[in-house]
């Protein structure tokens, strides 16, 4: 339901990354009309002054809630919680406080574990100009360890928390979705693989993965993969240069 006309209830500032997909999938699952503003990471658009007023950390995604006086919200997990907790039908975030604690635990598991560790695996495996085996082994191994935690949870549960599909599932899904890009494997994790496939088949998830543009991971050729790596290396170089983080 990504909108073309301006000033719907929400404006999402995002790019086609696991963190960027988390709020777009959440919005699609909730059926909330929203506008999309694509942020060009390769052009460091997220470091421009206008964007830093929305997210002082200069990272995507960010959301502006026009229903509450243009409230800016940043950090993907905070955006997901903001949207889901305000849904009267509690589709993605239960009303029971005990179940809410379960959801938040698995959401923070992704925010503090899967995302950072798999992000470093991506960096050392795909983007680093110099291949450092220690870095590759360290972060790919840790990603696989965290995946095993998910696998163990899903052995006896259909969903990660609260006995229902929630923002915790969405948050972890977007990262597991690109597992092969990160050097991780699901070959010995049948429950995680089944959970991944079940979520990926959801129409709202498919729509959310195509925000802000057609999802390149669905059918990426070797040439497109190499181009994506080259663009990411260029971006990584620009953000590590002196003054780039200002």
TrEMBL record:
Residues 96-220 form the GST C-terminal domain. Residues 7-91 form the GST N-terminal domain. It comes from the Eukaryota. Belongs to the GST superfamily. PANTHER family: GLUTATHIONE S-TRANSFERASE GSTA, GLUTATHIONE S-TRANSFERASE-RELATED. This is Glutathione S-transferase. It comes from Coccomyxa subellipsoidea. The lineage of its organism: Eukaryota, Viridiplantae, Chlorophyta, core chlorophytes, Trebouxiophyceae.
